[in-house]
Amino acid sequence: MTAARTEELLAKLRGGLIVSCQAYPGEPMRHPETMAQIAQAAEIGGAAGIRCQGLADISAIVGQVQVPVIGIWKDGDSGVVITPTLRHARSCLAAGADIVALDATARPRPDGLSVAETARALHDEGAVLMADCGSRADAERAAAADVAILSTTLAGYSGDRPATEGPDLELLAQIVEDHPERPVIAEGRIRTPEDAAAALEAGAWAVVVGTAITHPTSLTRRFHASLKEGRR
User: What protein family does this chain belong to (predicted)?
Assistant: First the structure.
């Protein structure tokens, strides 16, 4: 992947909304065609990019949208789950992902490779990478490995920081300050348009929103709980 192509992708994402189109195992919507339709609807609504999970979903979505696609492959139930090995990352590339996101924590990876070793191999293959971070140390590690994009995806999930009620704007601002030369994407617990705007104000290059847009079960539960509380 040339530097020009990387810059082109980053320019398309800058200041924009990246919609995460994912369904959990066992859910009715967990089907590549369904995820592709949701991605198309998000693009029509103004999404600057799509984040999606699984090889079938990546392949289906890449063929249906014009915006950059960030691909991941979740595998496992604990520890490093997001694109946990070099093989997983290569498969996301082969499925057509424009950008591959991977766990950038210090936790051991199933194939025994470090984040730096994984990134080095993928750079040699022309990949544009996004580091899902849970701490400033993760971001430092990813930047040292020359990962193109940093993100706050794992803030509150990796054990390094407590989970905030909304987006971890403190960590976001810290990473932006630590790495002014590198795009930082905000992700995690962004539930409202106001949360998204606050993330951009804190210095985010772009904002990822998933559950609040693409997960009807969670949205229904929120409305249902509110109505139950109102009846009391």
Answer: Belongs to the NanE family.
pLDDT band at 138 (very low <50, low <70, confident <90, very high): very high
Residue among 10, 18, 172, 151 nearest 142 (CA): 151
Number of helices (H), then strands (E), in the chain: 10, 8
Q: If we measure between CA atoms, which residue out of 129, 128, 73, 82 comes closest to residue 105?
A: 82
Could you tell me if 179 and 138 are in contact, meaning their C-beta atoms sit under 8 angstroms apart? no
Q: What is the number of other CB atoms lying within 10 angstroms of the CB of residue 95?
A: 21
Exposure of 70 by Cβ count < 10 A (0-12 exposed, 13-18 middle, 19+ buried)? buried
Domains and CATH numbers, the chain: 3-231 (3.20.20.70)
Task: Give the span between the Cα atoms of 97 and 80, in whole angstroms.
Answer: 20
